[in-house]
Design brief:
The protein is an alpha/beta fold and 509 residues long. It contains 18 helices and 13 strands. Helix 7 runs parallel beside helix 16.
């Protein structure tokens, strides 16, 4: 968690962008992402130079000698953050426009720079030299504070992920919904889903609607926090973790760049984050992943001509929330698991497509849990009611016996637009109960959680809404006799009349 000092500096940087005319949160984060990349490119190069000197091996710096940028050449050292940050504002601004940004867009062949492939269509949008100068100074100050905090955390034997926390705080600035029904999943909900699924070092994890890569980052953090020795001290597992474990697709290139940077700031060297329309034939992934974590966009309807025919065979519909469920089942290996967020309509929708996908989850696979969440969870982005589905792909062999339902009423924050912290929080209870499902057998339908037999779900047209099965316990309320109520009303009325009369006399009326 970042401190008040660095939080204030990030807020001040944000205000600097706003004062300079850049107010779109996505654009601001995108420009900060580019500048962080440029800063880190310099840091990484300096580190390589030091390591090669210590080890007595050669290293060709990307900034060494004359560097070609388009049809122009320049002394490569001028492209280093540590050099140009001291230039006069106008010179630095022209250098950024004419050389630095074109330079980072041509680093695709540099195998030492995983960042570069996400910067190919970067556009420099800071409008003035004065704004650039202020932003560079602010970022230098933030990096210095990050280094100090990182040293403190390492000294206190804490896992130092200050840079990741800073980037996560920046992402919290995304307070407006994106296109195509996108809105950012709250981090505590993501962490809950990751903990419920308990990723292993051998998992291959995907999010086919990854956005800012929140699920993938949280899974990576969970593994580092809970299985560090297995992940980072085992060479094969570490190689898998750094390069092959995480895959994310999205159709928003800005989100892709931000998502890739988010992964890399959390220590993933080469995340597989790609532009892809997951529901189209662009995505041919079949039985490839052991774990899917996702909150796909609830766009509503789309053009069926753009949807993969494989998915339409499973679920003939134009509704993205149903098509994504069919996609998850296709992308998972046999035995693969999924935790995904769906709108409430998926649970009880009466169309043929709704019933077919629910039946497929229950009859042909193993549906394990339905966690109903209150509508305020996604405020201020949206007020839609949602649920978490947890299931395992069995490849048509069934496996559903009982389905666990949980009625979440609180997530640790108020359910209004302000989302201020509150004491009420069902998340620890959800995790505890899900990890001990053997203890759930005796729970009554009036409790927050309970089990429902598959046969009963089938008899209800595979309806998965918790209200279909939950029993409401009505507490009788006893009222006084009518005579007593009338007497109390007359007494209050007499007192009010007396008070009015006294007020009149005081006013001389």
């Amino acid at each position: 968690m970042i401190t008040g000092e660095i939080r204030n500096k990030i807020d001040a940087l944000w205000d600097t962008f706003a004062a300079g005319g850049l107010t779109n949160p996505l654009e601001v984060i995108e420009q900060i992402t580019y500048l962080m990349f440029i800063h880190d490119l310099d840091d990484a190069d300096n580190t390589h130079i030091k390591e090669s000197t210590m080890l007595g091996i050669s290293y060709d710096s990307i900034f060494e000698g004359k560097v070609s940028v388009g049809d122009k050449t320049i002394d490569g050292k001028q492209l280093k953050w540590s050099v140009f940050r001291d230039f006069p504002a106008e010179k630095m601004f022209n250098l950024m426009n004419d050389y630095v940004f074109p330079f980072i867009k041509n680093l695709h062949d540099d195998k030492d720079s995983a960042y570069s492939k996400y910067m190919g269509d970067a556009i420099f949008k800071l409008p003035t030299a004065g704004l650039l100068s202020k932003v560079v100074d602010s970022l230098d100050d933030i990096y210095k504070t990050m280094e100090d905090l990182q040293s403190q955390e390492q000294g206190n034997n804490h896992r130092a992920d200050v840079r990741g926390d800073v980037y996560e705080y920046l992402l919290n600035k995304l307070s407006t919904a994106g296109l195509n029904g996108q809105f950012r999943t709250p981090r505590h909900i993501i962490k809950m889903m990751v903990e419920l699924m308990d990723p292993s070092p051998n998992d291959t994890i995907a999010d086919p609607a990854c956005g800012t890569s929140g699920f993938l980052v949280s899974a990576a953090e969970y593994l580092k926090d809970n299985k560090e020795n297995e992940v980072l001290l085992n060479p094969a597992n570490k190689e898998h973790y750094m390069n092959d474990m995480f895959t994310g697709y999205d159709m928003d290139r800005t989100m892709l760049r931000i998502g890739a940077m988010n992964m890399m700031t959390h220590g993933i060297a080469n995340p597989h984050i790609e532009y892809r329309d997951s529901l189209s034939d662009q995505n041919s992934d079949t039985e490839k992943y052991s774990l899917i974590l996702a909150n796909p966009p609830f766009k509503g309807s789309l053009d069926a001509d753009t949807v993969s025919t494989d998915l339409l065979k499973v679920c003939k519909t134009k509704k993205t929330e149903l098509l994504f469920l069919a996609l998850f089942l296709r992308m998972l290996k046999i035995g693969g698991r999924c935790a995904c967020i769906v709108p409430d309509g998926v649970l009880f929708g009466s169309s043929k497509a709704h019933k077919e996908i629910r039946k497929k989850l229950v009859e042909d696979n193993r549906l394990e849990a339905v966690i109903s969440m209150p509508s305020g969870v996604f405020k201020p982005y949206a007020g839609v009611s949602t649920a978490v589905l947890i299931f395992t792909k069995t490849g048509g062999h069934g496996g559903t016996d009982k389905v666990w339902f949980y009625d979440m009423s609180a997530d640790g924050f108020s359910l209004d637009d302000k989302r201020t912290p509150v004491e009420q929080n069902d998340i620890p209870d959800i995790i505890e109960r899900f990890k001990n499902l053997d203890n759930e057998a005796g729970r009554k339908r009036t409790d927050k959680s309970f089990l429902v037999n598959k046969a009963e779900i089938a008899d209800n047209n595979y309806d998965l809404s918790i209200n279909r099965y939950k029993e409401i316990k009505y507490v009788p309320v006893e009222y006084p006799p009518t005579e007593e109520i009338l007497a109390e009303i007359m007494k209050l009325d007499a007192e009010a009349t007396k008070d009015l009369q006294e007020l009149k006399e005081m006013l001389g009326k």
